[in-house]
Amino acid sequence: MREPTYFVLAALLRGPLHGYAIMKRAEELSEGRVRLATGTLYTALDRLTAEGHVELVSEERVGGRMRRTYGLTENGSAALRAEAVRMAEAARLVIESGTGTKAGIAARKLRTT
Amino acid sequence: MSELDASLLVRRTRLLLRFYPPAYRAHRGEEILDTLLETTRPGRGWPPAREVASVIAGGLRARRAANLGQGLRASLRHVGILAVAMIMVQTPAALLSAVGQHIANPFHTYGPLAGVELGLALGSLFVAMALAATWCGRRWLVAATVVAAALATVACHLVLGGWWATAAAEMAVPAVLALVVLLPLTKRAERPPASLLWLAGLPLAVNFVAGLVVASGLDIHDALPVPVVSSIVLLAPYDTYLSLLPVLVAVCWLATDVRPLAAVAFQFLLMRVLYAAFGGHYPSETWTQMAIAIGLPLALTCALVWLLRHRTRTAPPTIG
Description:
The complex is a heterodimer.
Chain A: H1 3-11, E1 17-18, H2 19-29, H3 38-50, E2 54-62, E3 65-72, H4 74-97, H5 102-112
Antiparallel strand pairs in A: 1-3, 2-3
Chain B: H1 3-16, H2 22-39, H3 49-67, H4 72-104, H5 114-136, H6 139-159, H7 162-185, H8 197-215, H9 220-223, H10 227-235, H11 244-256, H12 259-278, H13 287-314
């Protein structure tokens, strides 16, 4: 799962949001690292909707224009959790082996001798 | 922001949304517009450059997905139909060229045109009928046109004698063969797209393939004896600096649709093979040059069909 997709799903964890709110929430959650542009957001939403990870929750007219709200499905929630676990595992491997730290290098030397 | 500024921004943003295909716009247009307006700071006349770029890229991606929506088989059928259409269009193009030459110089060594022109005019009518029938998915009408065109060609050959008969047959045989190819390609359920953008992009595709041929060291007139006539006719509208906008539109369109480029390459290949089969090759042409003239469009056609297959497999879902 690519980072923008991950943060789009993560943005919907607390509840359904409309397009602009998803962009803002994803930026906030990623501490400014993921800044979704409108075209990218709707391409991602099309794909996630087709895959069954996101669903349309409501449609309303605001100031004469259509505003749709999207929510996370069970599938989407499971996929997000699975990805989070996978990333946590990957991070744990690196952090626990102490790669690059003085302690890690010493530990590796000990193991090889 | 004043009301005037706001309406100007909305108008410009709507213009930007035209990068998306009509069906997608109908489904998502207002929603994307709403989001774009939210991302634009008050007082600005356009959405931020980053948003503009993403909408253009998203629009082209959506167009690409829509163009592949009918699947690989249908796309290949469209490539075939377009290639055949281009071959058949060469008959009216040759007719126009001959009539033009006759008007400019009635006492030209080619002599009076009555017999061949009548045959060509009839052939052009068949071509138009067959293409219209194919586009509408009427297979029986295409079949009827094939029979009529074949009969007209034979009659033309019997009535006219000598050089005229050979010239008429050289022009008619590819058209009749092309009509036969159209038959299995015609399917009611899979009509080729009717977008006018196809007309804008085709000359550019012809120019691109012709450019490749020239770049490989071949004389375009030797390498592509027949397509060059239609290429010149097709490229005429782009032969001016004022045509930058249609060229840009054509480039964007070709980026979203591989089919016309594949069709042009395939058409060049078909014409070259037909020419080798019926007309032989120029005395000045070496076997190496002939191999390049056939191998280049063949390689290009194969590469583009592979790209079409790859894009169809990895296409995002079609919306709208």
